[in-house]
Every structure is written in structure tokens, then in C-alpha cells.
Amino acid sequence: MEIRQIKDNEKALVQDLRDYSFTSVYKGEKLEDFQYWLENSHVLGGFIEGELAGQVFIFPLNMTLRNQNHAMGGIGFVATDPIFRNRGVMKQLMIASLVQMRENKQVISVLAPYSVSFYRYFGWELFNDILHFEIQEKQFPQTARNQDVVKRMSFQKVDSTILKEVQEFHNRYAEKTEGCMKRTSAWWSRIIKRQLDGHIAVFYESNRVAGYIRYDIRDLCFTIHDYYSENYSVEEAIWRYVFSHASSIDKVRGVVSIEQRFMLSFAEPQIKQQRKQETMLRIVDVYAFFTQLTLPKDISFYIQVLDTFAPWNEGVFHIHKGSVEKVIIKPPTRILTISIQHLASLVAGYETIEQLLYRQCVQVDGEIISEINQLFPKSNCFFNEYF
Fold first, then answer.
1. Pair 160, 269 in one domain
2. Which positions fall inside the N-acetyltransferase domain (predicted)?
3. Measured torsion, CA atoms of residues 372, 103, 382, 297, in degrees rounded to the nearest 10
4. Is residue 380 part of a domain?
5. Per the domain annotation, does 125 fall within a domain?
6. Burial annotation 312-329 (CB, 10 A radius, 16+ → b, else e)
7. pLDDT value at position 261?
8. Domain for residue 315, yes or no?
9. Which end of the chain is more exposed for a tag (fewer CB within 10 A), N or C?
10. Model's pTM, two decimal places?
């Protein structure tokens, strides 16, 4: 088997394998978008006897984690030709993707798993709960009249000024929100091309953007795909806007951060809700990741990382006086021993050290638990992107 980057004259093979492996064939705007990312991502192929047996895209993305925006490799369009199944194609591609992301200085990686257990094996772990909700017509609240400042933009007719304002707001929001991704113009182009019947409603306070929703209306359903607000008054304005469509819809669906409690303001707050885990995180380069963090100067302990598929992560790291150092000798005390996937869960704040200890996922000296919690307090990431 040969694992390498796809050549220009092989890109049609990548598109054919994607179309065969997934449920739809890309045409029109979606095909144009796919071809853009085929050109601008790092695409690895696995070849057997000269034939493309499998492929992995590495998107050049980013994500905010522990108050720092990091370069992130988004894994997408993972596919193996059924002819070559059970020959280790995807295993070799996943290992190669880790090497490539490290070379790209992408210190973390995110993917949407078709199988959680498969990607856990390679070091990714769930880190992000999101809330899917549905509000039936009989639950629509009565909203007070108010002179909200709202602008609407259709993706069929993009207003460049509004889109720029939304992009700038989103990126300011993403810089201070755990798990959030700053969106480039190319990523907004991708969103628009994949949702041509979509709209954006933008909410203003004091002549500046203070929130927005991205949505579409189909089959009497108002579906919210993005929901971002910087304060409660904007949330109220959002729901006044949504329910102003009551005469033409019979339900509202959407996805929001698990921390959102907008329904508590409704007279009937017991709407349908479902908590889902749809994305997984991996630390690609432990040392590089820690050097990018602002580490407390009053903590000192060791982390022994176990990582089968990224040998550069194997070893002991000393967190000490605001810095990190990889050491040769394993100390007898003040040490946390943790696998790479559980480190991702801990770093993201998805699980605390106490929860991991309870599930027997780590070994840790009790005297450093408070310092670990100081470094990685409980948090709720919100990652709402699709590759």
C-alpha cells in the first residue's frame, strides 16, 4: 500500500469515491464547493496496485480551546472503496493524517464520527454536547411587540455588507467561546453553497451586531442552524422574530449550545429536547498544544501521556511555573497518567479529573487533583460546524 498526497491528475478519482461512498452525488453549488476544498485541503490517498483504495481530507481550520484559538485539522470525506475493505487502508490513512497535521502545525483535530469506537481507537474522543430542540405550534409563546433592529439576508441574494458584519461578529464570539470556530470567507462561502435556500437574520444594538440566526423555512418548519447572541435582550428579539412567522409555520426546530436555556422564558417551557454528541476531538501534538496555553504559575505536576499512534506524544510532560517541558525520567509522585483520548476530554472540560478517575480512565496522585482542576476546569464546548 502507498499512502501519499493526492496529485492533480487524481482528483477526479477522489470525487468519484466520495460520490460512491456517501448518500448523495454532488452537483451544482455543492460540487463547486467540494472542488474548492479538494484544492485547498490536504488530501491523503491510500493506493493499492495503483488504484485509489481510500482517502482522507484534512481541512485547514481552527478552534478556540482554553481561551486560545488553535490551528485545527478538520477530518472529513473519509472513505474506503468496498473492494479494498479489511486491508488496513483506513488505519494507515489515519496514522498518516496525524503525521501530516503535525507537519501542518495543526495541534488539535476535530471530526464527526460514523463510529465513535473506531475513532476512539485512534485517539479521538467525544467533547461536545449540543441541544436539538423542537417547538410545536401549540407551544408558540405570545411575544410582546417591540421595535427590534433586524436585517435579513437571503443566500439567494447575498448582501456583502451584512455578511461582513456577521462574519466579524461570529469571529469575535468564537474567540471567547470554548469549542467555537472562527469562520473565514471561504467557510462562509461553503455554508452558503450548501444552503442556498437559507437566510440570516441579524440583530443590532447601538448600531452594532449583537446576535444572529441562520435558518431556513421548509414544509412549514422554521429550522435554526446557527443561534448566537451576546445577551438576553438579543435572545428575546430573536424569538420575537422567529414567532413573527407563526402564520406560515407549524413548528420550530434548531440546534443550540447545551448551555442555552431560552425555553425557560416561555409560558410552556417543556419543549422537545435531545442532547447529542456529534463531534470528537484529538490532541495532535501535546507539547505544541501546551506551549500555546497560558499556564498558571502556581501549579506543578507531571502528565504521562499514552498515545499508540502518535509516538511524539508518548512520554512525561512537566507543567511547572507557567511552562511545559518534556522530561526523560518518570517521577515517582505528583503524576497524572492518561491516554491521549481522555486527555482530549479533560482539556475540553467535557469530563473532570474526578469523573475520569471514577470511570477508572486515569491514574493520578490525589494531592494534585486540585491543580488539575485549576488548569482544566469543567467547561461546555460548542462546536457547530459540519465537514
1. yes
2. 1-156
3. 30
4. no
5. no
6. ebebbbbbeeeebeeeee
7. 86
8. yes
9. N
10. 0.95
By the 8 A CB rule, do 369 and 354 touch? yes
pLDDT in tens, 136-150: 999 998 877 788 999
Place of cell 493526492: 6
Say how many domains are in the chain.
3
Domain that holds residue 337: 285-375
Q: How many CB atoms neighbour CB 336 within 10 A?
A: 25
Do residues 290 and 270 both lie within one domain? no
All residue ranges of the chain with pLDDT < 50 are none
CB atoms within 10 A of CB 3: 19
Helix/strand/coil percent split, the chain, to 5: 35, 35, 30
The H or E element spanning position 20 is helix 11-21
Q: Are residues 224 and 289 in the same domain?
A: no
Q: Measuring CA to CA, which residue among 72, 85, 29, 104 is closest to residue 180?
A: 72
Write the CA distances from 278 to 114, 115, 117, 131, 382, integer angstroms. Answer: 9, 10, 13, 11, 11
- C-alpha cell at position 242: 422567529
- The pLDDT score that the predictor gives to residue 96 is 98
> What was the pLDDT predicted at 23?
82
Same domain, residue pair 147 and 87: no
pLDDT value, residue 141 = 86
